[in-house]
Amino acid sequence: MTPPEPHPAHEPARDPGDEPTRARDSDPGSPTGSRPDTPPGSPAGGVPVLTGAGAGAGADVDPDRDPAPAPRVRRFWAVRRIPAAVLAALVLGGAGLLLYDVAAVRADRTAMAWRRELADGLATRPLDDTWVVVGAAVAVVLGLWLLVLATTPGLRAVLPMRREHADVRAGLDREAAALALRDRAMEVSGVQSVRVRVGRAKVAVRAVSHFRALDEVRADVETATAAGLDELALARPPALTVRVARPPRKA
């Protein structure tokens, strides 16, 4: 029988190619089993960590920096097709009739009777004549009305909503807003009926309570309608007024 060989005091050095779990160019201080392509600072699983510009949205956010300003919300402008069509028809008809009469006079024909009477009246009537004053007043009123239509947006029944995106505009009809607030107020215990009137600057809520204390009902109705008004996401939230009363007594 051959005696067993004595165990060496020191294990002989291995060939670099015999290490299957450690890369040749890896850091000797790295734990065994780490991937050779794992960058410094990455977790052991090899998942890359985003740093600098590639990090998450909260990585480079300055706490002192102001948030991006919200897009400015403007009221919706009315198309006003009816006033524009009426004005265009009147101007077109008057200009066409006057042009025809002028062309007829140039062709050695007599002018129309209405134009002769109008010219004689303007030449003979004084400025303080009643019909002259009435005609001037009507012209001024029509001119002011057209200026108001041209400089005001109109569409008072549509309330602009907050703009979360610059390319999207939304509006809410006042009747729909009143119906939503009415439903929220009707959920309050003790409320028998509710009437809601929504304006551009004010919301008036009138509730009728048939039981519970009026102060408690008023506070609950105000809380519910205020929460509902905030959920409407209006750009300019109107002021809220709440009134609660008892139902009228039957005779």
Span of the ends, CA to CA: 128 Å
Poorly predicted runs = 7-11, 16-61
Count of beta strands:
5
Question: Taking all residues together, what is the mean pLDDT?
Answer: 77
Radius of gyration: 42 Å
Shape: elongated
Which band does the percent of strand residues land in? 5-15%
Spatial sequence of strands, sheet with the most strands: 3-4-5
Number of helices: 5
Order of helices and strands: HHHEEHEEHE
Give the proportion of residues in helices: 25-40%
Describe this structure in words.
The protein is an alpha+beta fold and 251 residues long. Mean pLDDT is 77; it is low at 7-11 and 16-61. Helix 4 (174-186) packs across helix 5. The N and C termini lie far apart (128 Å). Strand 4 (202-209), helix 5 (214-231) and strand 5 form a beta-alpha-beta unit. It has helices at 81-106, 113-124, 130-151, 174-186, 214-231, and strands spanning 158-160, 171-173, 191-198, 202-209, 239-245.
